Amino acid sequence: MFSTIRFSVFNRLRAANRNPVRGTRNVRFPRPLLALTILLFVVITACSRGPHYNIAIVGDIQQPGEGTYREATREIGRQIASSDAQFVVFVGDLISGGGQGQWDEFDRLVQPIRDAGKPIYSVIGNHDAAFPEGFEARFPRRQVIHLPGLALVMLDSEAQSEERNWALGDAQTKWLQSKPWTAEATAPHPLLFFFVHRPPHRSKFFARLDPGFRFQPEKTDVAKLLTDLGADAVFSGHEHLYSRQDFDGVDFIISGGGGGDLLLGDYHYLMITVYPASRRWTLKVVKVKSAGKPVYARSPFDRQ
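Given the sequence above, the corresponding structure tokens read:
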């Protein structure tokens, strides 16, 4: 009913301004009044969606070699710091595998985000695991972030992993099966987002690039575990591209365009808006531009 009323008012105002009744004076609404009415319409529409969260998600910002972060990565940091994102989730590979100096560089990169009052969360990536002390000094290896109507579960893909294979490990799997996100849940069925560095389902692009599973296997067992636990979406990185696929009604999203050598597409990050009351969420892929042009890197198709 409320929606019907606001659309009716909006349409009548528009019709009165554009199509005066024949035989009557052409009475037009003052433009400021029309603009105010339209603004109120937009505000009412937004408010009717209820409380929401804006989340920035970034993957694979790793420095090229021993150098500093790419300008695209620094631009991502600047944009997020000035955005309406309430917090940020990194999906791993915060550094390229070096030591304390690279972690110091990470701290400098995210300082504007921290100064803006935005909490930062992260999962560990395979490059971060080369110097895990730096990661563990900043983030837990696994955790649950509880919000009204929403639970974010950070997972460790390096818990029991080799260079080209990975597993969650028995201890973490048992922890997941205990459903730790239900302990502080404020809704019977909160939206449930899982974050893990290595993707349980590979992108179609990478599957064509590596049909023999030499670089990375499909982890259908992990995907099934998360799906059976009630996942609404699973976010990962590792593959330096963007991919979104639906498996058994669950979105599996890869976002690895934060700074590493690209496999496909543009440097990017994600902006997710979540409406817990209606169990809805929207996704926007933000492509990063520098000097008005898209930023690209070489595509390492010859990776061994």
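The helical segments are 2-18, 31-47, 71-82, 100-115, 132-136, 170-177, 204-209, 220-228. Try to locate this feature in the token string yourself.
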